[in-house]
Structure prediction request, 60 residues.
Amino acid sequence: MAHRIDQNKCISCGTCDMECPFGAIIISDLGKFSIDAEKCTDCDKCAKACPVDAAEKVSE
Ligand code: SF4
Ligand code: SF4
Prediction:
């Protein structure tokens, strides 16, 4: 199990970054949001908080 951010859905609202208790959200210089697999614990908070279902649980 892992978590990913679907770049086609993400509207860069920043909610996942505020919700993630482990600082696993990465924001690129271009403002793209992604998840640091090294820090992510798959707690699912970002997926529950994302308003457009862009942060999602995926099977690896
Ligand atoms: S909460 Fe969802 S839409 Fe907002 S930045 Fe995170 S992944 Fe993107
Ligand atoms: S699943 Fe949890 S730890 Fe992983 S990026 Fe989302 S909020 Fe952070």
Strands lie at 2-5, 25-27, 33-35, 55-58. The mean pLDDT is 97. Residues 15-19 form the longest helix (5 residues). The domain at 2-55 is CATH 3.30.70.20 (Alpha-Beta Plaits).
